[in-house]
Design a protein that fits this description.
Blueprint: H1 2-27, E1 33-36, E2 43-49, E3 52-56, E4 68-72, E5 75-78, H2 84-91, H3 93-99, H4 106-109, H5 137-151, H6 160-168, E6 219-225, E7 239-240, E8 252-255, E9 272-273, E10 298-299, E11 303-305, H7 311-318
Parallel strand pairs: 4-7, 6-10
Antiparallel strand pairs: 1-2, 2-5, 3-4, 5-11, 6-8, 8-9
Helix pairs in contact: 2-3
């Protein structure tokens, strides 16, 4: 009888644990959601990007070759580029304190923040509803850290592979809407319709997975180092979640084209790289680790992996020391 009792107790425990795991999984159901910034009335939306495989690269430039098969784990991606109203909370602690309903937690209060720009980082284009621009890759990652400390959710920049996979949304043409570049105006702000300025997010049609302005408006940071020959040899490998770690300040990998881009530069396979020249007018020595005073076309969009890394891995991602720029 005692043995039967113990076996029964054991089975109940296993079933209970199984139920706990199932309920916990349901608690983070893989569906669209809105991330509220605690203590404010600000938020941003994310959509699920399903796991799957796609053909990466294969466009018209040498650094897009060879085309190769890549497998991606599931993640969420922001439906829009991060706007100034949210980015400025991170930029200016006094502003964040002024509009936040409760005192800032110690971790947020002690966060290293960008230097206040010495010039107008909107470059006269305005802020209302528009994407934040001009931040360095380090600055974009530190914004993600601020988000993590505010929300408890791990956000980061997409890898190049994740960005291209999400932009293509299961399509195989030059653009996610087909081959006809004359249709770009329905989906993107670029040289043909932008008037030389950024525009409020979400005014154009989204791609099939619900991502707005994934092409045009502003270019978007990835978490990768740009390497011209990054794809070489990949066609012979089974690539799962590829990532090129950052080991030097320049160049960083950027995607998406911007409001002054030609249609050719809005191809989904097109790769861009950051340049030291974007800090040419920065008078500081060393130069700012936070801002590119000549990059009014560069912003960010965040992702959240469905399977988050460990706390140690999260902090290693956020706490990588900035590389001094002279």
């Amino acid at each position: 009888m005692r043995i039967l009792y113990l076996v029964g107790f054991y089975l109940i425990g296993i079933l209970g644990f199984s139920s706990f795991v199932t309920n916990r999984y349901k608690a983070v159901a893989f569906k669209p959601y809105t991330q509220v910034i605690p203590g404010t009335n600000l938020s941003f939306d994310l959509v699920p990007i399903p796991e799957g495989s796609f053909l990466m690269g294969g466009g018209g430039a040498e650094d897009e070759l060879p085309a190769h098969q890549v497998e991606l784990s599931p993640f969420w991606m922001g439906t829009h580029e991060i706007t100034w109203d949210i980015f400025e909370l991170f930029l200016d602690k006094n502003f964040e304190e002024a509009i936040t309903e409760k005192p800032l937690p110690v971790e947020v209060d002690g966060l290293s923040r960008p230097s206040i720009p010495y010039l107008d980082m909107t470059f006269g284009m305005g802020k209302e509803g528009k994407p934040a621009i001009g931040m360095t890759q380090y600055g974009a990652i530190q914004f993600c850290k601020w988000l993590y400390l505010k929300t408890g959710v791990f956000y980061r920049l997409p890898t190049e592979a994740e960005w291209e996979y999400a932009a293509k949304a299961g399509t195989k043409d030059t653009y996610f809407f087909g081959e006809d570049a004359s249709l770009l105006g329905d989906y993107a702000w670029y040289t043909g319709n932008s008037g030389g300025s950024t525009h409020p997010i979400g005014l154009k049609k989204p791609n099939p997975w619900g991502l707005y302005d994934i092409l045009g408006n502003v270019m978007e940071w990835t978490s990768d180092q740009y390497q011209e020959d990054a794809y070489q040899g990949r066609e012979r490998l089974s690539m799962k979640d590829p990532h090129v770690p950052v080991t030097s300040l320049y160049p960083g990998a950027i995607r998406g084209g911007h409001y002054k881009s030609e249609s050719e530069d809005l191809r989904m396979t097109k790769r861009f790289k950051s340049k030291a020249e974007w800090k040419r007018i920065d008078p500081q020595i060393p130069k700012s680790q936070w801002w590119f005073p000549e990059a009014p076309f560069l912003g960010l969009r965040v992702v959240r992996p469905f399977n988050p890394p460990s706390e140690e891995e999260i902090m290693a991602y956020y706490n990588r020391a900035p590389i001094v720029d002279y």
